[in-house]
Amino acid sequence: MEYVRELDTRAAGTAATQSALKVHRLTFMEAAMLVVGSTIGSGVLGLAYASRLAGWPVPFVWLVVAGIFSGISMLYVAETALRTQEPLQLSGLAEKYVGRIGSWLIFFSVGATSFCSLIAYTAGCGRILSECTGLTPELAGILFAAAATVVVWGGLKVTGVAEKFLSLGMIIMLLLLAGASVVSARVPLADIFYTHWAHAVPVFNIAVFCYAVQYIVPELARGFTHAPQKLVPSILTGMGISFLILASVPLSVFLMLPVAEITEVASLSWGRALQPDIFFFLVNAFAFCAMLTSFWAISESFLTNMVNRLHLASEGAVKGRALCLAVIVIPPVFLASGNLVGFVNALFSAGTFGGIIMSVLPVFMLRQARRQGNRQPCWQCGRIASLPVQLLVVALFSGAGIYALCSLAGLLPPAW
Questions:
Q1: Which residue spans traverse the membrane (predicted)?
Q2: Distance CA 36, CA 168 (A)
Q3: Mean of the per-residue pLDDT values of the chain
Q4: 59, 70, 253, 408: which has the fewest Cβ within 10 Å?
Q5: What is the pLDDT of residue 6?
């Protein structure tokens, strides 16, 4: 057994030298918190506003459903990565197993999710910094994006360490805020547990967006080349923590605010409702950390996807890295500063064009990886990769995409 492990380690090292992506070891906690940081971004803030007409039980149900099926899709990516010797990002895995068209579709989905997310993060953090410092939202957003990009420049290991500490702090802040919201609730519980399913379907797209982090799985696999058996447990741990946070934030907001007072960036109205004033800063610190950790994770992942998809020589080449980061960060900052894209609409679009493709294509990637993979995996999906489950994953996310496209085309009544 030790001899086999040694051979696997040597093979992984050889594959790493042949790949443009560098291998940086992650700890279990860093990997789990990368999943949390990717998931808990602007979506957790937009979820309360998007579901205010539907009622809290609706996002709770959708978070369960989207969490289960997005988790299954992530595990498909995990097995695909474990069957692949060389470290590749999501677009690289797609090119290997479903061809160039599939690779471009994945690249487009990661790009759409990234741009829409970064617009939302820049706009949301700009508003928060503006409230706290007096700067204009535009200038505050630019300063936020510039500072956040510095960490991404440091690579996977730097991003993982930063995610670990900031995500742990974010969890502690949420526990304090949720407790304060329960103790000083302004809205009776009976007024929270209403359901209007006519407004429910678009909330699913926000839930899909929250969980649409399949792009982070190959990053984790790259960080666990020394211990691939830790990949799946770290994903499941991160998804479990993420679900608890995603369900708790809208509930806390609903406890403190009547429907008419919930704003798009819910932390602003939530913070004002809590007393004493220290909670205003704590709520916004939580929201800021949520968007910052997600900014790091998605920018790092999109950067390595660009390296794979554009066949750049090396992830570490200074000029190429700088150009990629400029392409990733500057357009969203420009759009956010010009107020050209609404906060919740950005999330809705990301859920449509990014989450759907990233959730469906792993089905086909896994099927081909089981035929063409060049490595024996230490873990397999088992029953969750049966044909009925795969068909259900495709049908569920494709249906959500069709609904969203009809809504964007104006064929359905407004749902917000």
A1: 31-50, 56-77, 97-123, 135-153, 165-185, 197-217, 238-258, 278-299, 320-340, 346-366, 387-412
A2: 10
A3: 83
A4: 408
A5: 39
Residue 85 C-alpha from the chain's centroid: 25
pLDDT for residue 238 is more than 60: yes
Query: CB neighbours (10 Å) of residue 40?
Result: 30
Nearest to 110 by CA among 294, 302, 351, 299: 302
Whole-number Cα distances in Å, 309 to 12, 83, 159, 361: 21, 20, 21, 16
CB 120 within 8 A of CB 346: yes
| Residue 275 in this model has a pLDDT that exceeds 80 | no
| Predicted confidence (pLDDT) per residue in 56-68, tens digit | 999 999 999 999 9
414 in a domain, yes or no?
no
CATH number of the domain that 289 lies in?
1.20.1740.10
Q: What's the longest Cα–Cα distance across the chain?
A: 64
pLDDT of residue 17 exceeding 50, the answer is no
Cα 170 versus chain centre, distance: 16
DSSP for 167-214, written as a single string = HHHHHHHHHHHHHHHHHT--S-GGGTS---GGGTHHHHHHHHHHH--T
Query: Is the residue at 188 inside a domain?
Result: yes
Of the candidates 400, 64, 61, the residue with the CA atom closest to the CA atom of residue 197:
61
Would residue 388 count as lying in a domain?
yes
For 212-355, where are the alpha helices, taking DSSP H only? Answer: 216-223, 231-256, 266-273, 278-309, 318-337, 343-350
Query: 413 versus 308: which is more confidently predicted?
Result: 308
Q: Which residue has the higher pLDDT, 48 or 380?
A: 380
Domain count, the chain: 1
Residue bearing tokens 């998931």? 39
- State the pLDDT at residue 347: 53
CA gap 56, 27 in Å, rounded: 35
Q: Which structural domain range is residue 315 located in?
A: 19-408
What gap in Å lies between CA 344 and CA 18, rounded to an integer? 42
